[in-house]
Design brief:
- This protein is mainly alpha-helical and 93 residues long.
- The chain has one domain.
- It is 77% helix and 0% strand.
- The termini are far apart.
Length: 93
């Protein structure tokens, strides 16, 4: 069975990283002194969108090229925002 490469696994793993960052910031009471939590939430939304769109592409046997491109764009936006959140977190500590 020939499957198109997808980003479902990577986006779900990075979504978990976003939630780990958000939980760590909440537990250390650092949400008020940095924008890392807001950026991580936005990254999580993009990665969630990428996960859902990638799942739709897989369920339709890769025939929806536009949805596949949207999933990739959301994935790369999520990665970029996650990088920014980690950079902001690095400035905190």
């Amino acid at each position: 069975m020939d499957r198109h490469p997808n980003i479902l696994n990577a986006s779900t793993n990075l979504l978990g990283v976003c939630f780990f960052i958000l939980t760590g910031l909440r537990l250390t009471h650092s949400t008020a002194i940095t924008y890392a939590d807001e950026v991580a939430w936005i990254a999580a939304l993009f990665l969630l969108g990428s996960t859902l769109l990638s799942y739709i592409v897989i369920r339709n046997d890769g025939t929806m090229r536009v949805i596949e491109r949207l999933a990739e764009a959301a994935f790369f936006a999520g990665i970029g925002l996650l990088f920014i959140a980690v950079a902001l977190l690095g400035r905190l500590y």
